[in-house]
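I'd like us to work through together how a protein chain folds, taking it slowly. To get us started, please write out a protein record for me. Label the sequence line and the structure token line clearly, so we can match residues to local backbone shapes. Once you have written the record down, we can walk along the chain together.
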Amino acid sequence: MLTTEDLARMVQDFYHAALADENEIRLNSRVTFDEANREAIVAYYGKMGVTTRRNLATNNLASVEPFATDLIEKHGLTGQLNDSDIARVQQAILRAGCDFTEAMKARFEGDFSYSPQDPLLSMMLDAPVPVVPRAGAKDHEPEAIGPLFSERAEEFRKSQIRLDAWENQSGLQARKTYELFEEVCGNRPLSGYLRADAARFKEVLQHLPANYGKAAAYRGKTATEIIELTQGDDNIQLLSGRTVQRHFSALSKLWVNAVDLGEASENIFEKFKFAASKRARDQRQMWESDQLQALFNTPIWRGCHSKDRRSRPGQHVIRDERFWLPLVAVFSGMRQEEICQHLVEDIRQQDGIWLFDINARNGQQLKNSNAIRLVPIHKELIRIGFLDYVEQQRKAGHTMLFDQLERGGADGRFGHNYSKYFTRYRRDVGLYQKSLDFHSLRHSATTFLQRGEVHPTVVDRLTAHETQGETARYTKDFPLAQLKDAIDKIDIKVDLSFLAT
């Protein structure tokens, strides 16, 4: 069992090492802070202090679990402490954290004489607590060697795209991550960063508004300035746990590569815990029958003013991609890009059954190899004239099924611009809900298949979900007739007879 003296020695080590680490960065970087940055940093540590005290008050010990794990390992106690002792270490770190944030605020207000208030930190011990130098620091030698973070990160990012490990969109997201990390933690060789830098970056991410990179009010401001501007406003939506984790993932991949190449001794982004993400089924809603009824009663399907004014009621029903995409989605369960990139030749007949041939023969972008499949065309789509539309496209000599769609976005997706349009249209007709979007139509199709008592493995085959367990080995293919029978069990319970041709 840890004695109080042992605990004090550990937490004093943690506290003094953190302060020494910060001061060494000051001395080595020789950065001069302008008044705006200085005030923003004071505000940042003020908010960090509020968060730390709240975590201490609410007994949120998990918030410092990575620090506790490192501290226990540093003192050679890994595997030797019981749960109660580990909890005491975690609580002590939170207590020290309260003093640390006050000490940091004082430093950026010109006072280096702050004395800790917590008894564990002020306790006199038999032996002085050593000040632990930054990792990799040696007497009379540079603190860290190697290319700077900015150079190394960009090189790695380009390599990931070149090797097809990342799509362009992922590469652009990683660039934003790396730029933000450099802004928050500085630009130095990867071996010069500590786990404390990763923790600081996580803290910043968790206090950034979700739209920090888009809103005009934040333009030209640093992350700390944005946090200062928005702190205390409960109406501000912060970055989701999933987004924070995505930032960490991009950095972790870079550090793993650096460790492999001997450029860093450890991955400082490992073992951090994040708030549990919502289950996939909870992240988006599905379009229920009444909502689908409302959607298909809007001008695109009931009659619009003109091709360019689809949200205004009128006499024109224009059967192009804006008409067909939501209908195909809810009656097939296909992903948006799978639908948008179809060629006319992908709509064909086999064994007397009309189907969508989802393939990658002509450079189509698919989520994975599981996505290659045949999906029979629902009887309702046939009834309301989908095959007539296909034939019109064929006779007109179009290669693309939806020839008006153009590639857009970082990855050149045919659905990029349509997705934006569908959002605008839903706003215009009063049906916009944030979590009810085009992809939700795929969720609806899956749910309607389940309600039709279609076997789960058949549902997975139609929607290209991976079947889990031993069953997956024996259910790679199903007869088309069985798939056709299954797809026709999608019943959205909306009367579309007004669309029948």
